[in-house]
Amino acid sequence: MLDLDPILTVLAWASLAAFAAGLGVLPRAVLGRLPRAVLGWGNALAAGLMLGVAFVLLTEGLPTGIGYGALGGALGVGVVLFTHALTGTAELDLNALDDLDPAYGYQVVLVNTLHAAWEGVAIGAAMLVSVPFGVSMAVALAIHNVPEAMVLTEILAGRGVRLTHAAALAVGANLNQVMMAVVTFAVVSAAPAALPWVVGLAVGALLQLLLSELLPESYHQAGHTSIALVALLAMGMVVAFHGATP
Ligand SMILES: [Zn+2]
Q1: Angstrom distances, CA of residue 145 to CA of 15, 43, 106
Q2: What is the pLDDT of residues 122-171, one digit of tens each?
Q3: Parent domain of 47
Q4: Domain assignment present for 32
Q5: Which residues surround ligand 1, an ion (CB under 5 A)?
Q6: Domain assignment of residue 147, yes or no
Q7: What's the whole-model pTM score?
């Protein structure tokens, strides 16, 4: 790996994850309108990868300070609930492909933007555990961003948004992932005692998001057994990949 300043390393890998979201328009561009089940599996894949990231971040990032980690986790869940309540997106149906209310498109992009911020905190926290670990988490979240953007594209394309614009919106919704990764890394580098809090915060927020957004939607879109299998396979891949890297 290039010997970059650590902040630049975080910036580079978090940016890679954000720009990967642009690839999410490809299935729609190649195949046209996607079957509903494919969207369900996309959500399940995104949820499973997120579950894997949360799991390994929890095991690697909290060898000590589990009490502070738990408090951070509760805070993460609370902040996600609060930001969703504040923006009026708490019970937004992310499945309404044919909803033509003008506000709906904005709300869905907003939900994706809020969601991406927490993944940025997770990347920053993982980079603080170690740079190679942070890179593997950024790669997992980069892959995760693709099916997530695929689902967003389907909603936007159904509302007449061009695919190039959908790609730009998907990347744009993930740019604060980059900012949050860099800010988390910089702040906690200066105050290392905060690491268990921040790891807990990221894990709590990720779990809340996948349980309240991604999985409930996916269960409406495809068979329950297939959703569970895709999500578990994706989680297993993150855990196995992490176990295989020194
Ligand atoms: Zn995500």
Answers
A1: 12, 10, 19
A2: 999 999 998 889 999 999 999 999 999 998 888 888 888 889 998 999 89
A3: 14-244
A4: yes
A5: 148
A6: yes
A7: 0.91
